[in-house]
Amino acid sequence: MKLEKAYSEELNKNITAEEADYRYSIGDITSKYAFSCPDDSCTAPVTCANLDKPKAKRKRDPYYKIVGEHHPDCLIKKDINLSDKRPATSDSLYSGHDEYIDGAVRLNLNPPSAKRFGGEAIRLDKERMALVGLRQYVVEEGKRRIRPSKTLSSMIDAFLNHEDIAVQLPRAGTLPIKDLFVELDAQEISNFEDEYRIYYGKAWINKNDKGYVIRFVNTLKYGELETRPTFFVPQDMIEQTSYTKFRSSVLDKLTDKLPKNLFILSETGPYFKDRYINFWLEGLEYMDYRDLQPRPSKRHQSVRLQS
Ligand SMILES: [Zn+2]
To answer: Which uninterrupted H or E stretch holds 180?
Structure first.
Protein backbone atom coordinates (compact mmCIF):
# COMPACT_ATOMS: atom_id res chain seq x y z
CA MET A 1 0.00 0.00 0.00
CA LYS A 2 1.23 3.46 -0.83
CA LEU A 3 1.91 5.69 2.14
CA GLU A 4 0.40 9.11 1.28
CA LYS A 5 1.91 11.01 4.18
CA ALA A 6 4.70 10.44 6.66
CA TYR A 7 5.66 12.20 9.86
CA SER A 8 8.60 14.52 9.29
CA GLU A 9 10.79 14.44 12.39
CA GLU A 10 12.41 17.69 11.29
CA LEU A 11 9.11 19.59 10.76
CA ASN A 12 7.10 17.74 13.44
CA LYS A 13 4.11 17.17 11.20
CA ASN A 14 2.70 14.78 8.61
CA ILE A 15 3.50 15.76 5.04
CA THR A 16 3.27 14.27 1.55
CA ALA A 17 6.37 13.16 -0.33
CA GLU A 18 5.80 16.08 -2.73
CA GLU A 19 5.99 18.54 0.11
CA ALA A 20 9.03 16.73 1.50
CA ASP A 21 10.68 17.18 -1.89
CA TYR A 22 10.07 20.93 -1.80
CA ARG A 23 11.10 21.32 1.85
CA TYR A 24 14.30 19.35 1.14
CA SER A 25 15.12 21.63 -1.80
CA ILE A 26 14.94 24.72 0.44
CA GLY A 27 16.87 23.08 3.27
CA ASP A 28 14.05 22.63 5.84
CA ILE A 29 14.53 18.87 5.63
CA THR A 30 18.07 17.51 5.57
CA SER A 31 17.74 13.70 5.56
CA LYS A 32 15.63 11.17 3.70
CA TYR A 33 15.76 9.02 6.86
CA ALA A 34 14.14 11.62 9.19
CA PHE A 35 10.59 10.32 8.76
CA SER A 36 8.31 7.90 10.56
CA CYS A 37 4.84 6.35 10.34
CA PRO A 38 2.12 9.07 10.36
CA ASP A 39 0.04 7.22 12.98
CA ASP A 40 0.14 8.95 16.39
CA SER A 41 0.84 5.75 18.29
CA CYS A 42 3.56 4.50 15.95
CA THR A 43 7.23 5.27 15.38
CA ALA A 44 7.97 2.84 12.53
CA PRO A 45 10.83 4.34 10.50
CA VAL A 46 10.14 5.61 7.00
CA THR A 47 12.61 6.40 4.22
CA CYS A 48 11.68 9.05 1.68
CA ALA A 49 13.23 7.30 -1.32
CA ASN A 50 14.94 9.44 -3.98
CA LEU A 51 14.60 12.61 -1.88
CA ASP A 52 18.34 13.29 -2.05
CA LYS A 53 18.67 12.39 -5.71
CA PRO A 54 18.95 15.28 -8.20
CA LYS A 55 15.71 15.64 -10.19
CA ALA A 56 17.39 14.95 -13.55
CA LYS A 57 18.72 11.60 -12.30
CA ARG A 58 15.45 10.30 -10.83
CA LYS A 59 13.68 7.38 -12.41
CA ARG A 60 10.86 7.93 -9.95
CA ASP A 61 9.63 10.86 -7.85
CA PRO A 62 10.26 10.69 -4.10
CA TYR A 63 7.98 8.27 -2.27
CA TYR A 64 7.66 6.92 1.23
CA LYS A 65 8.73 3.44 2.18
CA ILE A 66 8.05 1.96 5.62
CA VAL A 67 11.27 0.32 6.80
CA GLY A 68 10.43 -1.03 10.26
CA GLU A 69 7.86 -2.60 12.54
CA HIS A 70 4.63 -0.74 13.24
CA HIS A 71 3.27 -0.40 16.77
CA PRO A 72 0.65 -3.14 17.40
CA ASP A 73 -2.10 -0.46 17.66
CA CYS A 74 -1.05 1.37 14.49
CA LEU A 75 -4.04 2.02 12.22
CA ILE A 76 -1.85 2.35 9.12
CA LYS A 77 -0.59 -1.18 9.74
CA LYS A 78 -4.19 -2.42 9.98
CA ASP A 79 -5.00 -0.76 6.62
CA ILE A 80 -1.96 -2.37 5.03
CA ASN A 81 -2.90 -5.80 6.36
CA LEU A 82 -6.39 -5.47 4.87
CA SER A 83 -5.17 -4.35 1.46
CA ASP A 84 -2.57 -7.16 1.39
CA LYS A 85 -5.16 -9.93 1.60
CA ARG A 86 -5.14 -10.70 -2.09
CA PRO A 87 -3.79 -13.70 -3.95
CA ALA A 88 -0.15 -13.45 -4.89
CA THR A 89 0.57 -13.30 -8.61
CA SER A 90 3.79 -14.14 -10.36
CA ASP A 91 4.45 -10.45 -10.96
CA SER A 92 3.55 -8.97 -7.60
CA LEU A 93 6.71 -6.81 -7.50
CA TYR A 94 6.08 -5.44 -10.97
CA SER A 95 3.26 -3.26 -12.21
CA GLY A 96 1.85 -2.01 -15.50
CA HIS A 97 4.71 0.53 -15.53
CA ASP A 98 7.12 -2.29 -16.25
CA GLU A 99 7.04 -3.32 -19.87
CA TYR A 100 8.59 -6.66 -20.68
CA ILE A 101 12.13 -6.36 -21.96
CA ASP A 102 13.45 -9.07 -24.26
CA GLY A 103 16.16 -11.19 -22.71
CA ALA A 104 15.87 -9.63 -19.24
CA VAL A 105 15.16 -11.77 -16.19
CA ARG A 106 12.75 -10.62 -13.50
CA LEU A 107 12.90 -11.24 -9.78
CA ASN A 108 10.31 -13.70 -8.57
CA LEU A 109 9.51 -13.38 -4.87
CA ASN A 110 6.56 -15.72 -4.72
CA PRO A 111 6.70 -18.14 -1.87
CA PRO A 112 6.41 -21.64 -3.38
CA SER A 113 3.03 -22.18 -1.71
CA ALA A 114 1.58 -19.18 -3.62
CA LYS A 115 1.15 -21.58 -6.52
CA ARG A 116 -2.05 -22.86 -5.02
CA PHE A 117 -3.55 -19.40 -5.56
CA GLY A 118 -2.65 -19.64 -9.23
CA GLY A 119 -5.90 -21.27 -10.32
CA GLU A 120 -7.95 -18.65 -8.55
CA ALA A 121 -5.86 -15.77 -9.91
CA ILE A 122 -6.20 -17.10 -13.45
CA ARG A 123 -9.95 -17.57 -13.03
CA LEU A 124 -10.31 -13.93 -11.90
CA ASP A 125 -8.07 -12.79 -14.73
CA LYS A 126 -10.16 -14.76 -17.17
CA GLU A 127 -13.36 -13.12 -15.97
CA ARG A 128 -11.79 -9.71 -16.35
CA MET A 129 -10.35 -10.56 -19.74
CA ALA A 130 -13.70 -11.93 -20.96
CA LEU A 131 -14.81 -8.30 -20.97
CA VAL A 132 -12.20 -7.41 -23.56
CA GLY A 133 -12.34 -10.71 -25.42
CA LEU A 134 -10.95 -14.13 -24.60
CA ARG A 135 -8.59 -14.08 -27.56
CA GLN A 136 -6.52 -11.33 -26.02
CA TYR A 137 -6.46 -13.27 -22.77
CA VAL A 138 -5.03 -16.34 -24.46
CA VAL A 139 -2.27 -14.26 -26.04
CA GLU A 140 -1.51 -12.63 -22.71
CA GLU A 141 -1.40 -15.98 -20.97
CA GLY A 142 0.90 -17.40 -23.62
CA LYS A 143 3.31 -14.49 -23.22
CA ARG A 144 3.31 -14.81 -19.49
CA ARG A 145 4.51 -18.38 -19.60
CA ILE A 146 7.70 -17.68 -21.48
CA ARG A 147 8.74 -14.64 -19.46
CA PRO A 148 11.82 -15.64 -17.48
CA SER A 149 12.14 -14.95 -13.78
CA LYS A 150 14.42 -16.10 -11.00
CA THR A 151 13.84 -16.51 -7.30
CA LEU A 152 16.28 -14.76 -4.99
CA SER A 153 18.09 -18.06 -4.46
CA SER A 154 18.59 -18.77 -8.17
CA MET A 155 19.57 -15.13 -8.73
CA ILE A 156 22.29 -15.61 -6.10
CA ASP A 157 23.46 -18.82 -7.80
CA ALA A 158 23.64 -17.03 -11.16
CA PHE A 159 25.65 -14.21 -9.58
CA LEU A 160 28.06 -16.57 -7.81
CA ASN A 161 28.52 -18.50 -11.08
CA HIS A 162 29.38 -15.23 -12.87
CA GLU A 163 26.51 -15.64 -15.34
CA ASP A 164 26.15 -12.66 -17.62
CA ILE A 165 22.45 -11.78 -17.50
CA ALA A 166 20.39 -8.60 -17.46
CA VAL A 167 17.91 -8.23 -14.61
CA GLN A 168 14.76 -6.15 -14.90
CA LEU A 169 13.85 -4.24 -11.75
CA PRO A 170 10.43 -2.80 -10.87
CA ARG A 171 10.10 0.73 -12.32
CA ALA A 172 13.82 0.97 -12.97
CA GLY A 173 14.64 -0.81 -16.24
CA THR A 174 17.43 -3.37 -16.47
CA LEU A 175 20.92 -3.69 -15.12
CA PRO A 176 23.68 -6.32 -15.37
CA ILE A 177 23.37 -8.90 -12.60
CA LYS A 178 26.77 -7.94 -11.17
CA ASP A 179 25.41 -4.44 -10.47
CA LEU A 180 22.35 -5.82 -8.72
CA PHE A 181 24.59 -7.24 -5.99
CA VAL A 182 26.28 -4.89 -3.55
CA GLU A 183 28.91 -6.28 -1.20
CA LEU A 184 28.96 -4.38 2.07
CA ASP A 185 32.32 -2.69 2.43
CA ALA A 186 32.24 0.52 4.48
CA GLN A 187 30.22 2.47 1.90
CA GLU A 188 28.36 5.71 2.71
CA ILE A 189 24.71 4.63 2.67
CA SER A 190 23.37 7.80 1.07
CA ASN A 191 25.35 6.86 -2.05
CA PHE A 192 23.28 3.71 -2.54
CA GLU A 193 20.52 3.75 -5.16
CA ASP A 194 16.90 3.80 -4.01
CA GLU A 195 16.16 0.82 -6.21
CA TYR A 196 16.07 -2.88 -5.51
CA ARG A 197 19.52 -4.21 -4.76
CA ILE A 198 20.77 -7.40 -3.14
CA TYR A 199 23.17 -6.44 -0.35
CA TYR A 200 25.44 -9.16 0.94
CA GLY A 201 28.36 -9.98 3.14
CA LYS A 202 29.71 -12.13 5.89
CA ALA A 203 27.39 -12.03 8.89
CA TRP A 204 26.62 -13.64 12.23
CA ILE A 205 23.18 -14.86 13.20
CA ASN A 206 22.09 -14.66 16.82
CA LYS A 207 18.82 -15.50 18.51
CA ASN A 208 17.00 -13.37 21.06
CA ASP A 209 13.55 -13.66 22.64
CA LYS A 210 11.81 -11.93 19.70
CA GLY A 211 13.59 -13.48 16.75
CA TYR A 212 16.95 -13.54 15.03
CA VAL A 213 19.48 -10.74 14.66
CA ILE A 214 21.72 -10.78 11.61
CA ARG A 215 24.82 -8.63 12.06
CA PHE A 216 27.16 -8.04 9.14
CA VAL A 217 30.90 -8.19 9.79
CA ASN A 218 31.70 -5.24 7.52
CA THR A 219 30.62 -1.73 8.36
CA LEU A 220 28.59 0.96 6.60
CA LYS A 221 28.76 4.72 7.09
CA TYR A 222 26.32 7.56 7.44
CA GLY A 223 28.13 10.87 7.82
CA GLU A 224 30.36 10.55 10.90
CA LEU A 225 28.82 7.26 11.95
CA GLU A 226 30.45 3.98 10.98
CA THR A 227 28.81 0.84 12.28
CA ARG A 228 28.03 -2.78 11.52
CA PRO A 229 24.60 -2.95 9.93
CA THR A 230 22.03 -5.44 11.13
CA PHE A 231 18.65 -6.74 10.20
CA PHE A 232 16.07 -8.51 12.26
CA VAL A 233 13.99 -11.60 11.50
CA PRO A 234 10.98 -11.39 13.84
CA GLN A 235 9.60 -14.63 15.28
CA ASP A 236 6.11 -13.42 14.21
CA MET A 237 7.24 -13.28 10.60
CA ILE A 238 8.45 -16.88 10.77
CA GLU A 239 5.19 -18.04 12.32
CA GLN A 240 2.87 -16.12 10.00
CA THR A 241 4.41 -16.79 6.62
CA SER A 242 3.64 -19.57 4.17
CA TYR A 243 7.30 -19.50 3.13
CA THR A 244 8.77 -22.52 4.85
CA LYS A 245 12.42 -22.30 3.82
CA PHE A 246 13.35 -20.48 7.04
CA ARG A 247 11.49 -22.23 9.81
CA SER A 248 12.78 -21.67 13.35
CA SER A 249 14.49 -25.06 13.30
CA VAL A 250 16.42 -24.02 10.19
CA LEU A 251 17.39 -20.63 11.62
CA ASP A 252 18.39 -22.22 14.93
CA LYS A 253 20.95 -24.31 13.08
CA LEU A 254 22.41 -21.14 11.57
CA THR A 255 23.11 -19.67 15.01
CA ASP A 256 26.16 -21.89 15.31
CA LYS A 257 28.66 -19.06 15.80
CA LEU A 258 30.07 -19.59 12.31
CA PRO A 259 29.55 -16.59 10.03
CA LYS A 260 27.55 -17.12 6.85
CA ASN A 261 27.34 -15.22 3.60
CA LEU A 262 24.03 -13.37 4.03
CA PHE A 263 21.99 -11.79 1.24
CA ILE A 264 19.12 -9.35 1.67
CA LEU A 265 16.99 -7.85 -1.07
CA SER A 266 16.03 -4.28 -0.27
CA GLU A 267 14.03 -1.70 -2.21
CA THR A 268 15.47 1.43 -0.58
CA GLY A 269 18.70 0.16 0.96
CA PRO A 270 19.83 0.39 4.56
CA TYR A 271 18.46 3.24 6.69
CA PHE A 272 19.82 5.33 9.51
CA LYS A 273 17.93 5.67 12.80
CA ASP A 274 19.04 6.44 16.36
CA ARG A 275 22.76 5.92 15.67
CA TYR A 276 22.15 2.59 13.95
CA ILE A 277 22.26 1.49 10.35
CA ASN A 278 19.76 -1.28 9.63
CA PHE A 279 18.14 -3.10 6.80
CA TRP A 280 14.43 -3.80 6.83
CA LEU A 281 13.47 -7.36 6.00
CA GLU A 282 10.13 -7.27 4.19
CA GLY A 283 9.56 -11.00 4.23
CA LEU A 284 11.51 -14.23 4.49
CA GLU A 285 11.63 -14.48 0.69
CA TYR A 286 13.80 -11.33 0.74
CA MET A 287 16.74 -13.08 2.42
CA ASP A 288 18.99 -16.02 1.77
CA TYR A 289 22.39 -17.30 2.81
CA ARG A 290 25.28 -19.43 1.61
CA ASP A 291 27.87 -21.20 3.71
CA LEU A 292 31.24 -19.54 3.49
CA GLN A 293 33.76 -21.64 1.64
CA PRO A 294 36.29 -22.95 4.14
CA ARG A 295 39.83 -22.09 3.16
CA PRO A 296 41.89 -25.15 2.29
CA SER A 297 44.46 -25.77 4.99
CA LYS A 298 48.17 -25.49 4.15
CA ARG A 299 48.59 -29.21 4.56
CA HIS A 300 45.78 -29.88 2.13
CA GLN A 301 47.37 -27.55 -0.42
CA SER A 302 50.73 -29.25 -0.24
CA VAL A 303 49.10 -32.65 -0.77
CA ARG A 304 47.45 -31.22 -3.86
CA LEU A 305 50.74 -29.90 -5.20
CA GLN A 306 52.41 -33.23 -4.87
CA SER A 307 49.72 -35.19 -6.64
ZN1 LIG B 1 2.64 2.57 11.90
So the answer is: helix 177-180
Cα first-last separation, the chain: 61
Distance 77 CA to ligand 1 centre (A): 5
pLDDT band at 30; cut points 50, 70, 90 = very high
CB of 290 within 8 A of CB of 116?
A: no
- Ligand 1: distance of its center to the CA of 5 in Å? 11
Task: Find the 79 Cα to ligand 1 centroid distance in Å.
Answer: 10
Confidence of residue 1 (pLDDT cuts 50, 70, 90): low
- Crossing angle of helices 118-130 and 134-146, in 10° steps, is 140
Q: Which residues surround ligand 1, an ion (CB under 5 A)?
A: 37, 39, 42, 44, 70, 74, 76
pLDDT tens digits, residue range 167-216?
999 888 899 999 999 999 999 999 999 999 999 999 999 999 999 999 99
**pLDDT of 124 above 80:** no
What's the pLDDT at 66?
A: 94
Ordered by start, the domain boundaries in the chain are 5-83, 87-172, 184-291
CA of 153 from ligand 1 middle (Å) equals 31
Average pLDDT of span 141-170 = 85
Distances (CA, A) of 123 to 11, 87, 97, 145, 216: 48, 12, 23, 16, 44
Ligand 1 centroid from CA 283, angstroms:
17
- Pairwise CA distance, residues 3 & 6, whole Å: 7
The verdict on domain 184-291 having CATH code 2.30.320 is no
Report the C-alpha gap between 29 and 34 in whole angstroms: 8
